[in-house]
Each structure stands twice: as structure tokens, then as C-alpha cells.
Amino acid sequence: MPSLPKISSARTDRLHASWRARFSPDATSLVLLVLLLLAAHLLLWTLLTGISHRSPDLDNMEELVWGSVIEWGYYKHPPLPSWIIYGLTSVFGRSVWVTFFAGQLSVVLSLWMVWRLGCEMTSQKNALIATLLIMPITYYTTRGLISNHNTLQLWSIAGCIWMFYRSWRYERMRDWLGLGIFCGIALLSKYSVVVQFAVFFLFLLIDGRLRYARVWKGIALAAAPLLLMMLPHVLWLQRQVMTPVGYASESLTRESTRLENLEMVLDMLTTTLARLAPMLLALLVIVWWQRRRISAALATDAPAGRGIRLSESLRPEDRKFILLVGLGPLVLTLVAVLILKAPLIADWTTSYYMLFGFFAFWCLNADRPGTGKPTSSALLRICLTVIVTIQLCTVIGYALVRGPLSDMFGYATRANFPGEDISLAMQQEWRSHVNTPLTLVASDTWLGGNIAVHASRDVRVLIDGDVEKSQWVTAEQAASCGMLLALNRSDDAADGIPPKVEELMLQAKWRGTLQLPATRKMDGPQVIVEWGIIAPTAACRPGT
């Protein structure tokens, strides 16, 4: 048998060097490096939490419940995030990790678009520095695992900002069209994007562009796909009793005194500061590291010690864009909340901080090597080291604390909730009393979702026992097709007891109680579930 040709050691070294060069901060194009960083972010957060968590967060479970069917809307929110979950679970099944993947996929897509936006304004290296600096923000790490409409809207709002910048700068009709498409996607994700739309309008007003007919033509072109995409959802709204519009109105019109309103704003600001703290910490370390390096260079008269601010690499117009569009949503929201005395929580501002990495340009320097031309290579390497270290510590620590350590010390959380064990026990009770397959669970979203997602894909949740919250179930089906009832009677149950499920429990032919450990620690807290079964009748027509 002929021997295979040997690859020389020198050639192997050249191949390795070639691959390292492609992912190097000094590469001509940083696309591969950016893709590698984002892929690693997505993989680590999905994999480690998928392994360590037995159940997802409450909002993730809500999306799994809604995303079991395709609707043009759900009683709290527009439909697009739930459609995403539907698509992913159709491929991968209703597994816990799918929701973590969905949230972090939205995060990495938004980070990619922030980088692309930065490349429009400055060099690829500077754009990557701005992108790296926002990566430790809690909304992109631990809260990026929460697949709610705030997180799953991130990528579309990032696309809106990117396309708005291109439309404003280049005034090309294809960019206005792209803006309209991303705005439609964002509005189908959550209505709160109207704050971003208002900021865009105010920016054009302050910039003076609204005086020109070509800008109004662009706005009209952007409005066309937006309206077309929203039309089916608007028609759906007209046929519903409980709608996202009503939910949003109720959330924003809760009465409060001026003092209560100020307390809510203060609480939101302190919570936001805490969630921005990892970015601020990273920036402090980077500034200290760079100044220490510059001081050492100046002590030896090295040319690398003399630099310029990164902000000087931006056009004056782009600095204005970063300032107004970057701070506009937060400022506008705070002003509106204070004037209207409306409620406010930090989660509603999830998408407001995408441009905050560019603010660091005013306190970071580019180096001047021997050529005398500014470069950000050394600074980029510092940023990579600091951010990657923080990210690794955060993801490993979060996975361990929320998963194995909580179980070890008997601390019950959403993450270690024994949802699969409860589901298996409930399915066994159903099979022992009823010959037909289980298709409907009446419970609160959390407990009912845990039972349903670990059963057949055909099992739906009658949310709080209310058909108006569950468009996939008709009143006739609920009355005739039978259902499993479940109430969380645990001492520390955080989701309350739905009154309508309690009423249905009186109709149950069979009833009982399930008790099992909430964690792996057998003498720790217990989960107590009261269950009941309403048998299906001959009048049941599941498909109608």
C-alpha cells in the first residue's frame, strides 16, 4: 500500500499561521473574528445553561406555551417572537435549551448589526471595540437567556437603527425599504418600538432633513412594507376580546401618585445601573490598562505612547447620531413617564443600550506606531482579553449557581424546578383514568407549561383556565374534550392560584395531590401540586 505524502513541518506551521492570521485583530478584514466571537457567545450561553437548567425562566415558558401554535397575536403581545419559538421547537422539539438559544440568537444578531453599523462610521477595529464593550451588559448575558418579547425584539431594533443610519446618510431608496421591513418586524415583536420610531423622527427634525421632499419619499417607502406586514395582525385584533393593545394600555395607565412614580423611576435607574455595571467595570479596566501601557511607553520614549481619541475617527455628524439616537429612547421614555406618571420597569428598556459602546470612544485612545498613523490594534487586543475573561466568568458562574449549586444547597429556583418529573407523574395519572390522549392542561402558564412541554407536542395549555387568553382552544372544546387540571399548592408558589382553574377543579371526576422535592436535596423544599381530571365527552370535536 503506497504511503501518504508527508506534510513538512514548515508547511504545517505556515498553514497554522495562515489560519491564525485570518482570525487575528490585525487581519485586513475582521469578519471572521467577529463571527467567531459571536458564535462562541451563542454556543457557550446555550450549551452551559442548557446542561445546568432543568426548566427555563417564566417568560421562556410563556413563549413555549404561546409558540405551540401559530396565531396572528397573543393576549399580551404581537406574534413574531412566538413564531420564532414555534419554528425552533418544530425542528428541535420543546426542549428547555431551545429558549436559551432563541434569546442568545437574538443577542448575537443584534451585536452583528451593531458592528456593521460601526463599520459604516469608523474602522472595523473601532467598530469591534464598541461592540465588545456592550457584550457584558446583563441584557446580552444572563437576561439574554430570557426569551421574552424584549429580548427577541433586540435584533430587529438593531436592524432598524442600522437601516435608519444608512437611510439618513446615503438617502438610497433600498435603505428606506430595508428600514421599513425591520420596523415591521420590530412592531410585530412588541409595540414599544414606537419609542424608537419617535426618536428617529425627532432626529430627522433636529437634523433638518424633514425639509426635503426626498426624505418624505423615503419615509413613505418605508411605511409601505410596515403597513403591509401589520395588516393581518390589525385584522386579528378586531376579532379578539383580550388583545395586546388592551394589555399595553392597562400596563401603562395604572394610577400612581407623584411620589410612587418617582420611586418607580429611581428603582428603574438603579436597576439599569446594576445591569450596565459589567460594561462599566470592563471599561474601567480597559482604561486603566491602556493608561498604564501608555505611561510605560512614555517612560521609554516609545512612539506607541502618543495617541488620539477614538471619537476623533468619527465624523461630526456621526457623533451627533450616536448621541441623539443612542440616548434618545431612554431620555424620551423618562420624560414621558414623569409627565404622565406612568409605570416603568427596567426590562422595558432592554433595547436602549446598543450604542452605549460608542460612548467609550471619548475616553479611549488609538495608538500611533512608528508610522505616525493611528491604529487600534493594541487597544482591541486589550478589549478582547478583558471582555472574553468577563464573559467566561459570567457564563460559567451563572450556570453553576443557578443549576448544580442551587440543587446542592436545596435552594429552589425556576432553573431547577422539577418540571419533567411533574409532567411524567401527571401523564401517568391521566392514562390511569382516561383512555384518550391528553391534549389540554388547565393551569397557570408556569406549571401548565412545564407539564405540556414534557408531554406530546399536541398538548396545549388553557392559560389560567381562560379561553380568552388561549385562542387555540374554543369554549366548546374546553367544555367537551376533557382536561388535566393543575394547581401549585407549594408554600413558596410565586404564580398564584387561577380562580377559573379552582372553579374547574369542582367539576373534576378524579382528584389528587402530588408532592416531590423541589431540588435534588431530598430534605429541602417540596413542590405540592393539586391535580384533577375532567373526562372528555362524546360531544368532543378536537379539530373544530
What is this structure, in a nutshell?
This protein has 544 residues and is of the alpha/beta class. It has helices at 9-22, 31-52, 58-66, 80-92, 96-121, 124-134, 149-152, 154-170, 173-187, 194-207, 213-237, 244-252, 258-299, 316-340, 356-359, 377-408, 419-433, 445-453, 475-480, 499-505; strands at residues 307-309, 365-367, 440-443, 460-463, 483-488, 510-517, 526-534.
Keywords:
two-stranded antiparallel sheet, 7 strands, globular, alpha/beta, single chain, 2 domains, 544 residues, 20 helices, five-stranded mixed beta sheet, 59% helix
N/C terminus separation: 69 Å
Major pleated sheet: 5 strands, mixed
Question: So what's the overall shape?
Answer: globular
Report the total helices.
Answer: 20
Q: Outline the low-pLDDT stretches.
A: none
Task: Please state the average pLDDT score.
Answer: 91
The SSE order reads: HHHHHHHHHHHHHEHHEHHEHEHEHEE
Give the domain tally. 2
Strand content: 5-15%
- Biggest sheet, spatial arrangement of strands: 4-3-5-7-6
How many β-strands, per DSSP?
A: 7
- Class of secondary structure makeup: alpha/beta
How would you explain this protein's 3D organization?
The chain is an alpha/beta fold and 544 residues long. The protein folds into two domains: 28-412, no CATH class; 419-534, no CATH class. The chain is 59% helix and 7% strand. It has 20 helices and seven strands. The protein has helices spanning 9-22, 31-52, 58-66, 80-92, 96-121, 124-134, 149-152, 154-170, 173-187, 194-207, 213-237, 244-252, 258-299, 316-340, 356-359, 377-408, 419-433, 445-453, 475-480, 499-505, and strands at 307-309, 365-367, 440-443, 460-463, 483-488, 510-517, 526-534. The strands form two sheets. A five-stranded mixed sheet has the order 4-3-5-7-6, with helices on both faces. The chain has a two-stranded antiparallel ribbon with strand order 1-2. Helix 18 links the parallel strand 3 and strand 4. The mean pLDDT is 91.
